[in-house]
Write a structure and sequence with these properties.
Blueprint lengths: L10 H4 E5 L5 H15 L15 H4 L6 E7 L2 E12 L2 E9 L5 H4 L1 H15 L4 E6 L4 H9 L3 E3 L16 E6 L5
Parallel strand pairs: 4-5
Antiparallel strand pairs: 1-2, 2-3, 3-4, 5-7, 6-7
Length: 177
């Protein structure tokens, strides 16, 4: 046996994406609020996001779901699909820890793949999302993965527009009849 240290494990290979489980609720809240406040300076807390304490009731119904990117048992990313009816859904709560962003770690891509695969399997034809103009890296990520920007006036009436959102995207998963 050699005295050389074994190489560090590849963080991307240790990453797994799973549906939300209640045991992770506090970690999910801490991750999302921490990124919103700490990285983006958004004046928000968990109390003003009651959906974070009601994930199964809000997101894991109809064609919706909520996913976690886990490194070991640590939550390093989240993504949610909110069923808004009529074969449409809203991508919500997509947050990834800084060290798991980008193509090397692949957390965002894996979360999006899980979300879009689920959506297609559950009859979702269009996925919409809203974001702020400041999240330029997120804009590039969504555009790279087929989302097209659209004006607010083209959002479905059931889309939940957040106060801070002024930039909107749509991805068509199925051809219109």
């Amino acid at each position: 046996m050699s005295g050389a240290a074994s190489p560090e494990p590849d963080p991307a290979s240790a990453l797994r994406v799973v549906p939300f489980a209640a045991a992770y609720e506090d970690e999910v809240v801490d991750l999302i609020v921490g990124i919103q406040r700490g990285e983006y300076g958004v004046d928000i807390d968990a109390e003003r996001q009651p959906d974070l304490r009601r994930i199964p009731d809000v997101y894991q119904t109809g064609a919706g779901n909520f996913w976690l990117a886990l490194a070991g048992d640590r939550v390093v990313g989240t993504a949610a699909l909110l069923d808004i009816g009529a074969g449409q859904a809203a991508l919500r709560k997509m947050f990834v820890r800084r060290e798991y962003r980008g193509p090397a770690a692949g957390a965002a891509r894996r979360l999006l793949d899980a979300l879009l695969g689920w959506a297609a399997d559950h009859g979702v034809a269009e996925v919409y999302l809203g974001t702020t103009p400041f999240f330029r890296a997120a804009h590039r990520f969504y555009e790279k993965h087929g989302f097209a920007e659209l004006p607010r006036s083209e959002l479905p009436p059931s889309f939940p527009v957040m106060e801070v959102d002024t930039k909107f995207y749509r991805l068509r998963l199925a051809k219109e009849p």
